Amino acid sequence: MPFATNRPLARAEARVMARADLTRRLVAQLKHEEAVIGGIGFANFELWGAGHRPQNFYMLGSMGLAIPIALGVALAQPQRRVVALEGDGSLLMELGTLATVAGLRTPNLVMVIQDNGTYQITGGQKAASETADLIGIARESGLTQAAWAADEADFDAMVAQALSAPGPWVIGVRIGTDRPEATTERDPTRIRDRFMRGIGTIR
Length: 203
Hints:
By secondary structure, this protein is α/β, with parallel strands linked by helices. About 35% of the residues lie in helices and about 20% in strands. The chain has helices at about 20-30, 40-50, 65-75, 90-95, 95-105, 135-140, 150-160, 190-200; strands at about 15, 35-40, 55-60, 80-85, 110-115, 120, 125, 145-150, 170-175. The termini are far apart.
């Protein structure tokens, strides 16, 4: 089942939006202890800033692993919806994961790709995503439920659909280069243990 809200867009047709606003919009729709894996850098900074949840996992220094970790959680807990928030630079390091997800057909996995065409946290160097359409690559990898959000209202509708209908889903959003106001605490052990308690794997 494709997204019901829009026709397929090319990357250039999608509106550039604010990462912080989109993250808050996503978090506002989480009502059932969904797990959220925030990719390294600004993806998890904004997740932290949107309001901490024990089901949030904040990546520190492991570029390209948000979707693989989310996939592992989704496979281990098929009753739980799992969301990966990933940047375009990190996705470029893990493109093979898209084919793996497509092959496994993990129905409870949602991937939100935040694309500003740069490696922003390391200085704003240009990324290949500026010319490569990552959502097009996802579709060609077998993820037919992949689309760019045209604007904020479209994003809200796509998130609602992805949180309620079988996936896997890929939502692409074009974002600007605003810097987050918050910074995730850098305590890997505490982040890990709090997340594991949040998803019920330890007490």
